[in-house]
Amino acid sequence: MKLLLDQDVYAITARYLRTLGYDVVTAADLESSRASDEALLSMAQEQGRIFVTRDRDFGGLVFVRGLGAGVIYLRGEPAIIASVHEEFNRVLQSYSEEDLQQAFVVVESGRHRFRRLSP
Fold first, then answer.
1. For residue 8, which phi and psi values (nearest 5 degrees)?
2. CA within 13 Å, CB half, 39
3. What are the residue ranges of helices labelled H in the chain?
C-alpha cells in the first residue's frame, strides 16, 4: 500500500508504517514541506497514494470543496500514539487500497470512522 504523509505526521508514525512494509513517502521526501494542502492532495492522487495527515482541515477540502480522495486523518496526541498506530494498522489491513483511495477515514485510539466519497 502506498502512502503520502503530510508534514504534520509524527516521524515515529512513518517509521512504524515502514517497519510494517508499507510504501511510505513524506512531504519532506518530496521536498514539499511547504506545499499547500491542495498541492499535497494533488500529489497523492497523481502518485496513487493515500494521503495521511493530522490536520483536520482536510475534511473541508475533501467534503466541501471536493478536492482529492483517499485521506486518512489521524487523531491523537503523542501520549496515545501507540494505540492510534494499532488502530491505523487495523484500518490498513481491513480495507483494500482501492477502498481507501475512495474514502475519508478518521483514526483514533481504539476506533475509526470510514466514509466513502461520492464519485
1. -90, -5
2. 9
3. 11-19, 37-46, 58-59, 81-94, 97-100
Buried b (16+ CB within 10 A) or exposed e, 106-118: bbbbeebeeeeee
pLDDT per residue over 80-96, tens digit each?
Answer: 899 999 999 999 999 99
pTM for the full predicted model: 0.91
- The CA angle 90-92-98, to the nearest 5 degrees, is 145
Q: Measure the CA–CA gap between 5 and 29, rounded to whole angstroms.
A: 10
| 69 or 29: which leads in pLDDT | 29
Question: 59 φ, ψ to 5°?
Answer: -60, -45
What is the CA 100 to chain-centroid distance, rounded?
Answer: 9
